[in-house]
Amino acid sequence: MKPINVGLLGIGTVGGGTFNVLKRNQSEIQRRAGRGIQITAVADKDLARAQSVVGEGVRVTDDAFTVVRDPDIDIVVELIGGYTIAKTLILEAIANGKHVVTANKALLATHGNEIFARAREKGVMVAFEAAVAGGIPIIKALREGLTANRIEWIAGIINGTSNFILSEMRDKGLAFDTVLAEAQRLGYAEADPTFDIQGIDAAHKLTIMSAIAFGIPMQFEKAYTEGIAALTKDDIRYAEQLGYRIKLLGITRRTPAGIELRVHPTLIPARRLIANVEGVMNAVLVKGDAVGATLYYGAGAGAEPTASAVVADLVDVTRMQTADPENRVPHLAFQPDQLSDTPILPMEEVETSYYLRLRVFDRPGVLADVARILADHTISIDAMVQKEPAEGEDQADIVLLTHRTIEKHTNAAIARIEALPTVSGKITRIRLEELGRH
Ligand code: HSE
Questions:
Q1: Residues forming CATH 3.30.70.260 domain(s) in the chain
Q2: How far apart are CA 6 and CA 2, in angstroms?
Q3: Which residue's alpha carbon is at the smallest distance from atom 8 of ligand 1?
Q4: pLDDT tens digits, the chain, 438 residues: what are they?
Q5: Range(s) for CATH 3.40.50.720 in the chain?
Q6: Angstrom distance (rounded) from CA 191 to CA 435
Q7: CB-based burial, 175-199: b 16+ in 10 Å, e otherwise
Q8: Among this protein's residues, is 205 annotated catalytic?
Q9: 106 lines ligand 1 (CB under 6 A)
């Protein structure tokens, strides 16, 4: 059978990795896919870079539209990123009857519903394993491997840059800015690193996983996102003393009232495997009703780990190309007419536990006032540590861990505690998840 022809849009880090992996493992991939998979055209605005990666025999152009319009191309791989030109190119490729493989989480989380609808009309596939957690086959696991399960929740470390920053701050006691600069130098961060540190990149990936897990449309605009920039070395140290690590987690959970969709720094017990995922690595914990908790771990970024996911999609598309579109694995795991309108819960309605750190004047009755306010809002204290004031200071840190409560109760209690004359400044609030059986 003649090889399937691929057009590659963007030959930067991941594009270069994809080209090299396909070339190096060509014969094994062919044995798996049932036919050859060859990149016959590459579009990149840096022609010299593209030419140096692909060598002779592959058409190189700086006009990506000539690739998506090329009648000889069967699959378009989009590795440009961003929402504008990438979206136009993908929609045009689909309109021209081409299958699409993309790593573009930002685009899918925000425009995926439209893109999948167009793909269904044309009977083509849009595959996106590389969009979430780099080389970890989490899309395949959620959509196919766990298909017997009612998924209950997912909690993931899905941004390598922020995990690297938190790991380095904890390990080496370094300041946030120093580690961010290092992450950029090492090439982990997004073009706009605020996407990494503000939790936006993680929220894009979480939105995609949530849709597949629960059979709902992509709803990135309803995700709650809070980044890591405000975390201090003190909080990391206090958490550690209490037996917890702080990670930037993406959490999506099915509750009777709706679906939680949230990204924020989270204390997790240090004994959990996922708490020990360090550096740029990613991990996703999925709780299914039949299988229980399963954990997926691996490189969340980088040239060849991400290429591993892109090439897996190419093989999938190649194998499935001849299947009747109605009988292929659906884009979002559930049949398109079976998506549910279960609401995404507003953050105020989410139930979780909390780490609260407050600076207080070291005087009688301070703790009693704080405890009274928490009790008024039905918030139960799980643990408490008071740090001695530093030499010559009259203010001390109090760290409280609460039992599970509703976010709006915590908001109300925090506002009242901050208004106490014996409390100085703002309360630091970090959410806490046990990630146990429930
Ligand atoms: N900037 C992303 C990260 C790259 O740090 O995880 C992979 O999406």
A1: 347-432
A2: 13
A3: 301
A4: 899 999 999 999 999 999 999 999 999 999 999 999 999 999 999 999 999 999 998 999 999 999 999 999 999 999 999 999 999 999 999 999 999 999 999 999 999 999 999 999 999 999 999 999 999 999 999 999 999 999 999 999 999 999 999 999 999 988 888 888 888 888 777 777 899 999 999 999 999 999 999 999 999 999 999 999 999 888 999 999 999 999 999 999 999 999 999 999 999 999 999 999 999 999 999 999 999 999 999 999 889 999 999 999 999 999 998 889 988 999 999 999 999 999 999 999 999 999 999 999 988 899 999 999 999 999 999 999 988 777 888 899 999 999 999 999 999 999 999 999 999 999 999 999 999 866
A5: 4-135+303-337
A6: 32
A7: ebeebbeebeeeebbbeebebbbbb
A8: yes
A9: no
**Helix H or strand E encompassing 111:** helix 105-122
| CATH 3.30.360.10 assigned to 138-299 | yes
Tell me which architecture the domain covering 347-432 has in CATH: 2-Layer Sandwich (3.30)
160 close to ligand 1 (CB < 6 Angstrom): yes
pTM confidence score: 0.95
Residue 243 falls in which region: left (phi positive, over 0), alpha (psi -120 to 50) or beta: left
CB of 104 within 6 A of ligand 1: the answer is: no
Nearest CA to ligand 1 atom 7: 301
Cα R_g (the chain), whole angstroms: 24
Q: Which CATH superfamily is domain 4-135+303-337 in?
A: NAD(P)-binding Rossmann-like Domain (3.40.50.720)
- CA of 134 relative to ligand 1 center, distance in Å: 8
Q: What atom of ligand 1 comes closest to residue 205's alpha carbon?
A: 8
- Nearest-atom number in ligand 1 for the CA of 161 is 5
Q: Where in the chain is the domain with CATH 3.30.360.10?
A: 138-299
Ligand 1 near 301 CB (within 6 A) = yes
Task: Report whether residue 189 contacts ligand 1, using a CB cutoff of 6 Å.
Answer: yes
- Cα of 423 vs centre of ligand 1, distance in Å, is 39
Assess contact for 139 and 206: CB atoms under 8 A. no
Q: Which of 205, 222, 247, 287 is the catalytic position?
A: 205
Instruction: Enumerate residues 6+ apart whose C-beta is below 8 A from 421.
Output: none
Report the DSSP beta bridge partners of residue 249: 264
**Relative to the CA of 301, which ligand 1 atom is closest?**
7
How far apart CA 261 and CA 2 sit, in angstroms, is: 45
